[in-house]
Amino acid sequence: MGVEDRDWYRDEEPQAEERGLRRFALPLVLLLVLVVGVASRIPHHAASNDPEHVVHHDSAIDVAGLTISLNKAPLYAKNDPWKTYLADEQTCPNAEDLNAPLHDQALTMICLINHARQGRGLTQLPVSAQLSQAALLKGEEIIRCKVFAHAPCGGDPHDVADQAGFVGSWGENLYIADGRYGAPRPALDGWLNSPGHRENIFRPEWQLQSVYVVKLDSFPGFNSPTLWVSEFGD
Fold this sequence. Notes:
The chain is an alpha+beta fold. The protein has helices at 102-119, 129-145, 159-163, 184-192, 195-201, and strands at 8-10, 59-63, 66-71, 170-177, 208-215, 218-219, 222-223, 226-233. The longest helix is centred in the middle third of the chain and has 18 residues, at 102-119.
């Protein structure tokens, strides 16, 4: 998130079929450190024009090196209009498990996105190896430049798709969060409650997707957050 208060996507005239497309099991083995986190807003000193995102933090204090929670806000709003699009535990297991391996969390997010699309009568999206590479590159840029945005280091948001060799229309959703809110289901709920990001998820033209997730030791404005990058293409 971060460009004109919404997701980012660009349409292109089809030039050639994407080469090397295949179902990709998301081997996110290059992930850095450990994680947890919530619905997002760009830190105040990182270029931010994304008011759709609100950061949720659990109140806590540190006592003798132990973090003690003082208050836990609900993961989902009481009257959340999009909660019916969230898959249950049987359909997409461990969707609130912060301790699950990151590879498993990525697969869970793919499951959640496909379930939400099915709720709108849309097709499920297989995973693209090239979009997986683009998502990884975007995550690495955000981490390297410490800016939560679609073009964190400058340039064009679409550059990562070009670098990955992806040809065609392309879209991207970003999310960063602290604590429990960084788990897959709360992250998807954050996107669904954001009009621009929801529009991206429910775009009928998409044929492919991938996600990248990483747990960070630190990030400006956050405490050990989870970062999600979701890519779409056709």
